[in-house]
Amino acid sequence: MNMKPENAAITPANANPMKGSEHGLWIGEHDVLTIAIDQQSKKFPPTIDHCSQLNKMIQGLAIAAKAVIYRAENDSSIDTSFAMLPIGDIADSIIILSQLSEAVALETNA
Q1: Residue 17, SS3?
Q2: What is the rounded distance in angstroms from the CA atom of residue 58 to the CA atom of residue 80?
Q3: What is the pLDDT of residues 49-81, one digit of tens each?
Q4: Which DSSP state fits 65?
Q5: What pLDDT is recorded for position 38?
Q6: Which residue has the higher pLDDT, 24 or 29?
Q7: Residue ranges in 1-110 assigned as alpha helix (H)
Q8: Distance CA 83, CA 49 (A)
Q9: In 31, 66, 103, 105, which residue has its Cα 20 to 30 A from 56's Cα atom?
Q10: Domain of life here (predicted)?
């Protein structure tokens, strides 16, 4: 499948909340990590509070992206193209964390 990460939709693969649900998380350009979130999990039972924590991480990454761009545009002592290299990884991280947040929200509302 040739989808861009921003076009990926998160939908529960299994409607039975007792068995959890699977979620596809885009990693990089073409790879998908499929995870299962189960409300019965002893290690990581998802709660809506996890979405808040994930969303704070997303906001932090967005602030970091702006800082990288500002430095690349305003620091003449560094190569602009080199300074901009982290932006792709930051954007990928924002996408995967927002997908994970959506997956947790879907599971806790199941």
Answers
A1: helix
A2: 24
A3: 888 889 999 999 999 999 999 999 999 999 999
A4: H
A5: 80
A6: 24
A7: 48-74, 80-83, 86-108
A8: 35
A9: 31
A10: Bacteria
pLDDT for the residue numbered 41: 66
pTM: predicted TM-score of the whole model, two decimal places: 0.67
C-beta separation of 104 from 23 below 8 A:
no
When computed from its CA atoms, the radius of gyration of the chain, rounded to whole angstroms, is: 17
When comparing pLDDT for 18 and 104, which is higher? Answer: 104
* One-letter amino acid of 109: N
Determine the Cα–Cα distance for residues 65 and 42; give it in Å rounded to an integer.
Answer: 35
Which of 68, 71, 60, 73 is closest to 85 using CA atoms? 68
103 vs 38: CA distance, rounded Å: 11
CA distances in angstroms from 75 to 30, 79, 82, 88, 89, listed in the order given:
33, 9, 12, 20, 21
